[in-house]
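User: My instructor asked us to take a sequence, write out its structure as tokens, and then describe one feature of it. I'm not sure where to start. Here is the sequence I was given:
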Amino acid sequence: MSYTQINFTLGAIALLFAAAAFADENPDQIWQRIGAGDPGVGKFKSTYCQTCHGLDGNSTTSSHSPKLAGQYAAYIQKQINNYKDGSRQDPVMTAIAMTLVDNQEVLDISAYFASQKQMKGARTAVNKNGQTLYMRSNGCVSCHGVNGKGLTPNNPSTPVIGGQHKEYLKKQLRDFKDHARTNEASGMMEMMSSFMSEEEMEDVASYVSGL
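Assistant: Let's start with the prediction itself. The structure tokens for your sequence are:
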């Protein structure tokens, strides 16, 4: 069996496991979310990533290491490339991203995390104010969707945020507001966050983390 055939087999097996884990999802959408990478190969290449982001992309460190489970591969790829070119800054992630010199490696790692069952929060109660802010006209729901899982299966600009860690969501909102994070091309996140108070960020993050 050739290396290419092995890669394909590993990818097919990974997708079968993924499909079994969340049979309610459309297989075509799963494939679109995975993109051009091989999730089977990516599982082995992402061993170091799993230290912080979790074996299946569900990290346990709420503020520094986001969940990547079921995230769009194209979005993960964009963030890695942004760390590499300096348009997004983080001491740990920048250093790790710089070691990924092979673009296929980036595609495969992203595909592995994208192939996992999408992140889901463990909400005990709905933050009503956060829900109102999220669902208002021209609000977060316009890009991130009703359940925070996005509007298209593989989007490099608008990530899956439903079920993400609350503290991580709050930090990103603050970073966009303070212009500490500027790698969102449209400038929409910087603009939206600029109108939000600390309490509103807390409420929105609380609501979204439970989706």
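For the description part of your assignment, you could build on this observation: The chain has twelve helices and no strands. Try explaining in your own words what that tells you about the chain.
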